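Field log, afternoon session.

UNIT: design team B
ACTIVITY: writing a sequence onto a fixed backbone
BACKBONE:
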């Protein structure tokens, strides 16, 4: 293995730059040439490939986004697209590829692996919906971004004695809502993994109000309902003033937390180690403080388990 490529794909996530830096620096440390593929699988299909050196990853560990850019690429989902990508990898004499991205990107990595090209996947998505890893790169920063907003919303919610609905990202995954809800002390956490009952949500608000609670916060993952509709429903059932904040893309940006940078450094460097050892078609993830390894065919066939214990804990602490 003398030439390795690195690509960031799917939605950008804070910490992807730290992962790119780790791949480049570990590779160069081991005497390997590293190539950056720009714009995700789109750049792989179109041959947007650049040589990386120590300087190309200087001063990026603290920056959100990805210096290689990212994109969604439907062409890569087709056989022809994947063959074009393989031809480009061959043209640059690249022997192995590190793919940093979410479940879709890991599926793309699996397809390349299936065609005989050595790949290692690194989970990078704020959604934290990749199975067989506790965390994916970007999740911790996104949760902290939501917490910052909840802290601010609490001030105004208390002053005006209002109920706030905060809608966060997570079409199929309630992880951001879950952890931000627990850490932010939300009254209710609505996630796609659990059916909610608006009556119960409202009864909790009413109980709190009777006890003299000055504000309430409901956190909603976008996959479990629209914040504005939930706000209307709560107002109709309780008569309380509601306000809705939809966070959207601010959750994707920002300075990555130390935790995200550390995870990205560990996983990026380990991905290079694996390729150098001749390993392929594996995802490198994190369990506790340990790096772990899972075959890509398992990753694409499994769903990440939701943490019901944490959900129940948050529920029991917000009675
Ligand atoms: P996020 O979780 O942040 O949305 P993601 O990696 O899941 O990130 P997707 O848009 O699902 O984002 O996937 C990124 C890219 O991976 C797609 O644009 C496509 O190029 C590739 N991809 C997704 N699914 C497949 C598939 N089944 N086969 C081949 N490539 C795929």
């Amino acid at each position: 293995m003398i030439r390795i490529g690195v690509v960031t794909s799917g939605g950008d996530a804070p910490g992807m730059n730290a992962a790119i830096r780790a791949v480049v620096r570990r590779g160069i440390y081991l005497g390997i040439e590293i190539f950056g593929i720009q714009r995700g699988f789109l750049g792989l299909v179109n041959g947007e490939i650049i040589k990386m050196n120590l300087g190309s990853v200087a001063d990026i560990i603290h920056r959100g986004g990805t210096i290689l850019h990212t994109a969604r690429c439907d062409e890569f989902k087709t056989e022809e697209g994947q063959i074009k990508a393989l031809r480009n990898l061959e043209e640059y004499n690249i022997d192995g590829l590190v793919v940093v991205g979410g479940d879709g990107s890991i599926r793309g990595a699996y397809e390349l692996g299936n065609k005989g090209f050595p790949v290692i996947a690194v989970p990078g998505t704020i959604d934290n919906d990749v199975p067989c890893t506790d965390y994916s790169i970007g999740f911790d920063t996104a949760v902290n971004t939501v917490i910052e907003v909840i802290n601010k919303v609490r001030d105004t919610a208390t002053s005006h004695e209002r109920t706030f609905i905060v809608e966060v990202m997570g079409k199929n995954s309630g992880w951001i809502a879950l952890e931000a809800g627990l850490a932010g002390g939300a009254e209710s956490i609505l996630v796609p993994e659990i059916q909610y009952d608006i009556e119960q949500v409202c009864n909790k608000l009413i109980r709190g109000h009777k006890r003299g609670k000055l504000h309430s916060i409901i956190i909603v993952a976008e996959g479990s309902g629209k914040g504005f509709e939930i706000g209307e429903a709560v107002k109709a059932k309780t008569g309380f003033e509601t306000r809705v904040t939809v966070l959207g893309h601010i959750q994707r940006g920002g300075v990555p937390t130390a935790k995200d940078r550390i995870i990205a450094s560990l996983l990026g460097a380990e991905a290079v180690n694996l390729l150098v050892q001749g390993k392929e078609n594996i995802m490198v993830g994190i369990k506790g403080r340990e790096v772990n390894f899972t075959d890509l065919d398992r990753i694409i066939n499994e769903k990440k388990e939701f943490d019901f214990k944490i959900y129940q804990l948050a529920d029991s602490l917000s009675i």
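LOG NOTE: The chain has eleven helices and eleven strands.
NEXT ACTIVITY: expression trials, pending approval
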